[in-house]
Amino acid sequence: MVMSKKNVAVVMGGYSDEYVVSLKSGQLIYDSLDRNLYNVYKVVILKDEWYFLDSNDKKYQINKGDFSVTLHNETLKFDVCFNIIHGTPGENGILQAYWDAIGQTYTGCDFYQSALTFNKKDTLAVLSKYGILSAKSIYLKKGSEINVDEIVEQLGLPLFVKPNQSGSSLGISKVKEKSELMKATEIAFKEDHEILIESFLNGMEVSVGVIDFKGETIVLGITEIVSQNEFFDYEAKYEGASEEITPARIDEETRIRVEEIAKRAYESLGMSGFSRSEYILMDGIPYMLEMNTNPGFSPASILPQQARHYGISITDLCGNEVEKALHKMRS
Length: 331
Hints:
The chain is 32% helix and 30% strand. By secondary structure, the chain is an alpha+beta fold. It has 3 domains: 6-108, 3-Layer(aba) Sandwich (Rossmann fold); 116-133 and 202-293, D-amino Acid Aminotransferase, Chain A, domain 1 (2-Layer Sandwich), CATH 3.30.470.20; 136-199, Dna Ligase, domain 1 (2-Layer Sandwich), CATH 3.30.1490. The protein is globular and about 65 Å long.
């Protein structure tokens, strides 16, 4: 009996500045999925339009009623959507909620996990119950009063100001002088109506890839981030102003501790699919910065580098995601 190939749409783009990275991530997944097993298609979701791209890069509009596309008077539906949108709406639960509502199967985290992990404050609050440490922080909403002296007294200098919900380090500032704090809050509030002000953690930054692969939670790798900038910001992430060393230069005891905590965070949050969590190591103890449920997946990104180092091919890594989604649909 010949099994018919499943239709997989690689869904990329997004509504934030991260859409450029998502298109590169989507291309890698599109190129890597096994054509013997799947018919692979490209779908781009942008603020202004949702469209399907055929092999000649001709656009066809997506029917939002059932996420299908009409090609030459025939309707094409997808067995699985491979979600590789960084930022909104693919990493914060909005797209997942829509797909749930229309009965569309997709890869990665469910609506709730995506919404939770996109919110830094709530993620760290949940994880603190599982013994996972993070920086001291103050949470502020737009329009609330900002008492600079009080904040500096509580958190010390330098400190970080971050949007509560944003990806790719957009809107983050490192504040060294009291006089810079108000300006930093304005920059963060441009990205989100809620911000976090965090104490500075002085240590090594590591990025830890965790996935569920063939029924097991595995740590793909621990990458040490050596940024040429003040911190691992957008330029350092995407424009080469950082050195990424896999595996990180840490002793065995620290490696085991980081792996254990990264796995615990993944499982405590009920995650699925790709993830990358960021930590600062102080005296060998990991302090969590954030969790990404749809991390960059372009050839230059950390997760594919870690997979190569671990010995899992990109084809197997992506195929595993599709198979899990198909299995979830059947069960």
